[in-house]
Specification:
The protein is elongated, with a radius of gyration of 43 Å. Among the domains are: 98 residues, Tetratricopeptide repeat domain (Serine Threonine Protein Phosphatase 5, Tetratricopeptide repeat); 70 residues; 185 residues, Serine Threonine Protein Phosphatase 5, Tetratricopeptide repeat. The protein contains 50 helices and two strands. Strands 1-2 form a two-stranded antiparallel ribbon. The relative contact order is 0.03. The N terminus and C terminus are likely disordered. Helices cover 65% and strands 1% of the residues.
Length: 958
């Protein structure tokens, strides 16, 4: 598609007259595939509300001669304290044109209305349609519909019939207020009076239709006007009894009056005929081009521009702005740049809006540097940035977290007397919050919101920025903080603060806020209930969520499917099947159709319970409702079959999942591996596991299940190999994953590897749990620790005694030779400055003795006695080890004497410790003597049940 510039020496046009358009690019809007409804990147600037005390315009009036005839003090009659008599004398000296200029200068509707009424009270005043048009426009822009109605009636009382200008003014005012239907009703009023819209009025109607997204109607109205027959019936205006708003009721009444006052002939009823005509205003073509651009009809926009040139109408800055905006909205950045260059070549100066469009265009493309370039260009060409310029640049810089540059822009705005637009305040606040600069955020908010205040929508955006970071206290401070002139919180602010409480799991605060809403004159809406219900459901409080679900229905709100789904899922997670089904039935009774999440939750809860038939029932209902089957639901069914050992059915489902997009997920594969593991089907499980490993989808559960399978099948080397692979893969992220690998190493006798993993786990601040200590006890037994030692450690752990965990870990590290870690762990309780039990001293004596620091071990023994603790069997076993390492034969003889003379109960573990100690000390003859004594004194079998416990360990993990 090309935008043909037919004026360049083209037919029916004088090249001299249109020389400024020579050499325009022949493809301003080239062909490309685009959306029919592209989004507009440029947002029109928000005009600042005028100060009622400031009535003199900063711009020169349209009629400078008339304006010059009005004394500068004229508009300030209120401030100067002029009474009505003085004002009447002043107005009587003004001509009608001067009176019109005076009315136009008034920015406050009260002043304008008072002036008009004083004019009407003058003795020689002749009713003037221009005066009414000005006041009607002022009232419309201020949205003072009752006053506008009265002014309209006064106009009729004065015998002034509405003109095209009057209708264009009213249509524009209602359209800008968002009352499109009411604006179009004025067209029917025109038809009833037999008034045909002129070009300005027609352009106003097309613009209103364009801005409301009714592009086809706008084009048809334009075409009908050009053809000389305005087709009012092409406008889809529906009038029904439900429209009870004041402006609409007033319009319907006036239409009735006008119909009875001036009957309309059948000839002009469907439309008003004036003969073919052509638009002559650049504004008309600008509106038409923008309409086509927003409708995504770029070829039509190009044709409209070409028609504008063929008609001899010179494009202005607004024309180029519109086309640049269309290019930018469709990603044609180079074309937009070319148009900007052509503007300068043809001596059409860009305005601030031009640069705003370009800034917005590049901001959407993520080109921050170019945005900054055009922001600086605004001043370079002698223009001033407006509110939109500042809004765009702040948005871009905040998204880039350029704190210093943002503060420079704000300082520059303050210096120029400009305020930060309220839409930019949440953007700047979010930047500060994301950067953790909470003090700066508070100071910024106080400076820019404390005195003037901002809308509830923007306060909610600020609260939400805190909520996303879990900063519920700060969000609460904003909610309850100073609001300038507005003290009442809107429902949207309540909703966002409830969200903040929910993310921080402050459920009681959220519910308390909800209960307090009505006390402060704000009623919860559907979003309030939905947020609370989903919050409580996510926190596993399904009963409280269900109670709110009932209150939501009582309040007249219809819960969404997602709301029911959250409650059902919450009950399902807690295996509360009957309650989940009750909510499902309530949902169906209300006519809310379940989605795949609802069915998935029900199928999963039955699958967890092993109820295959019920799970299949809801799966069939899901298929009958036309919802697509997904891997999550099929995985739940695989799980259900796994629970009851139906491996063939599970296998068929798994094969079906392979035919879906993406194939089975890791969870489904793990379910199959677990099923095969329970049935001892090694080859089948290994096949799926290898596929997961090949695709990089194997997780900790996959590896743990395979270790469990190999162990149960007696394939200890394979189990150990999988454990080693887990350790290298980086899947050791929590206590459970460490436990699985430690257990696999323990079963295969890799004691030191297990202890090193335990140390790694502790260094990563992952606390060992009961399963970890169960493995440690097995490791101690496999490492040759006496049963009395293990029993003592297990007993103190089960009783929850102080320092029991440290003593157990110390014993393990000492046993495998990790003496540095053992002494580090030992020091945790020795230096705590708190009383110790015998087991703690025993572990410390062993740790220091095993590391060769016998003197330190014996000192601890003496310290133990000084504290009144008597040595037990475990103490003597560890002392025997220390004496043997130090070759202290006399110490060994003392312990042997206690056994020989029955001061200690005969104990096989202690005898064995003495035998080993004598051998270490080189006294083999004494070792043989003790061994002979043991044979006669102790008669019990060697009962090592560590192998039996290996299976129990794996059963507790998987």
């Amino acid at each position: 598609m090309s935008l043909h510039c037919c004026c360049c020496g083209g037919r029916d046009l004088s090249p001299r007259r249109f020389g400024y358009l020579r050499n325009l690019p022949c493809s301003l809007l080239p062909s490309f595939a685009s959306s029919r409804h592209p989004s507009t990147l440029f947002l029109p600037p928000l005009c600042s509300l005028p100060n009622p005390n400031l009535t003199v315009s900063s711009r020169a009036p349209a009629n400078s001669n008339a304006a010059a005839a009005i004394p500068p003090s004229a508009p300030r009659f209120r401030e100067d304290g002029l009474d009505d008599e003085a004002l009447d004398a002043f107005l009587a000296d003004l001509s009608p044109k001067e009176q019109t200029v005076l009315l136009k200068r008034q920015r406050d509707w009260r002043r304008a209305l008072h002036l008009l009424r004083r004019m009407r009270s003058l003795a020689h005043y002749l009713p003037n349609p221009f005066h009414y048009n000005v006041v009607l426009r002022t009232l419309g822009l201020a949205r003072r519909w009752d006053e506008l109605r009265l002014c309209w009636l006064e106009m009729a009382k004065d015998g002034i019939l509405p003109t095209n200008t009057t209708y264009a003014t009213l249509i524009d005012a209602y359209g800008k207020a968002g009352l499109v239907k009411e604006a179009l009703l004025w067209l029917k009023h025109m038809r009833a009076r037999g008034v045909s819209p002129d070009e300005v009025c027609m352009n106003t109607v097309v613009r209103i239709l364009k801005d409301s997204g009714r592009f086809d109607e706008g084009e048809r109205f334009f075409r009908g006007w050009c053809n000389g027959k305005v087709e009012f019936d092409v406008l889809e205006i529906e009038i029904d009894g439900s429209d009870s708003i004041s402006p609409n009721s007033f319009l319907l009444t006036e239409l009735f009056k006008s119909g009875s006052r001036a009957p309309v002939s059948k000839k002009i009823a469907p439309g008003v005929e004036d003969g073919p005509r052509r638009p002559r205003l650049a504004a008309t073509f600008n509106t038409l081009i923008d309409l086509y651009g927003k409708a995504g009809r770029l070829q039509d926009a190009s044709d409209a521009f070409a028609e504008m040139l063929r008609s001899g109408i010179a494009p202005d800055t607004i024309t180029f702005n519109t086309i640049i905006n269309i290019c930018g909205s469709n990603g044609l950045l180079s074309e937009a740049e070319s148009l900007l260059a052509k503007m300068r070549e043809r001596r059409i100066e860009p305005d601030t809006k031009t640069f705003n469009i370009l800034m917005s265009m590049y901001a959407s493309a993520g080109n921050v540097e170019t945005v900054l370039k055009y922001y600086n260009r605004v001043r370079e060409v002698g223009l001033c940035p407006d509110i939109v310029s500042h809004r765009i640049i702040l948005q871009v810089l905040c998204e880039r977290s350029s704190v210093g540059e943002v503060e420079d822009v704000i300082a520059e705005m303050t210096k120029a007397g400009a305020r930060v637009d309220e839409q930019s305040i949440p953007v700047v606040m979010k930047m500060y919050i994301n950067q953790g600069m909470l003090n700066e955020a508070n100071m910024f908010l106080e400076k820019h919101c404390a005195s003037t205040g901002i809308s509830s929508k923007n306060y909610a955006a600020i609260i939400d920025a805190y909520a996303e970071k879990g900063l519920w206290k700060e969000a609460e401070d904003v909610f309850y903080g100073t609001r300038g002139t507005r003290n009442k919180n809107d429902v949207v602010e309540y909703n966002v603060l409830i969200k903040a409480y929910g993310k921080a799991k402050q459920y009681d605060k959220a519910l308390s806020l909800f209960e307090d809403m009505r006390n402060f004159g704000t009623w919860p809406d559907g979003c309030t209930f939905n947020s609370l219900i989903q919050m409580l459901s996510g926190g596993d409080f399904p009963d409280r969520a269900r109670e709110l679900l009932g209150r939501m229905r009582d309040a007249g709100f219809r819960p969404r499917c997602e709301t029911f789904s959250a409650v059902i899922a919450s009950y399902s997670r807690k295996s509360m099947i009957s309650e989940a089904l009750e909510v499902y039935q309530e949902m169906k009774a209300l006519g809310v159709e379940p989605n795949e999440v609802v069915y998935g939750s029900l199928i999963d809860v039955f699958a967890e319970a092993g109820k295959v038939e019920e799970a299949l029932h809801y799966f069939n209902l899901m298929e009958e409702s036309g919802l697509p089957t997904n891997c999550i639901v099929l995985t739940s069914l695989v799980k259900a079959y796994s629970k009851v050992g139906c491996w063939r059915e599970a296998q068929e489902l798994y094969a079906k999942m392979k035919t879906l997009d993406g194939g089975p997920d890791t969870m489904a594969s793990n379910c199959m591996i677990n099923l095969y593991a329970d049935l001892g089907m090694v080859a089948e499980a290994k096949l799926i596991f290898n596929d997961l490993r090949k695709n990089g989808e194997a997780d900790g559960i996959s590896y743990a299940t395979m270790m469990y399978l190999y162990k149960n099948m007696g394939m200890l080397e394979e189990a150990s190999g999988v454990a080693q692979e887990v350790q290298k893969s980086g899947l050791l992220t929590d206590c459970a994953s460490y436990n699985n690998v430690i257990a696999a190493y323990a079963v295969n006798g890799r004691l030191k590897d297990s202890a090193e993993l335990l140390q790694q786990m502790i260094s990563r601040k992952i606390l060992p749990d009961a399963s970890t200590f169960k493995s440690i006890f097995t490791l101690l037994k496999k490492g040759g620790f006496a049963m009395e030692v293990v029993s003592q450690l297990e007993s103190c752990y089960n009783e929850g005694k102080r320092f029991a965990r440290q003593a157990i870990i110390t014993s393990l590290f000492s046993m495998v030779g990790l003496h540095a870690y053992a002494l580090e762990s030992c020091d945790l309780f020795l230096s705590a400055g708190m009383p110790l039990d015998s087991f703690a001293y025993n572990s410390a004596i062993y740790a220091y003795g095993a590391s060769g620091m016998v003197d330190k071990a014996l000192n601890l023994y003496m310290r133990m006695q000084d504290e009144g603790l008597k040595p037990d069997i475990v103490t003597y076993i560890y002392l025997a080890i220390c004496y043997g390492k130090a070759r202290m034969v006399e110490g060994l003889r003392r312990i042997y004497g206690l056994l020989k003379y029955e001061e200690l109960e005969p104990n096989e573990s202690l005898y064995k410790a003495l035998i080993d100690a004598y051998k270490i000390a080189g006294k083999h003859d004494l070792a043989e003597l003790v061994e002979q004594e043991m044979r006669f004194s102790v008669h019990r079998p060697n009962d090592d049940d560590s192998e039996t416990e290996d299976l129990e360990i794996y059963d507790s993990y998987i």
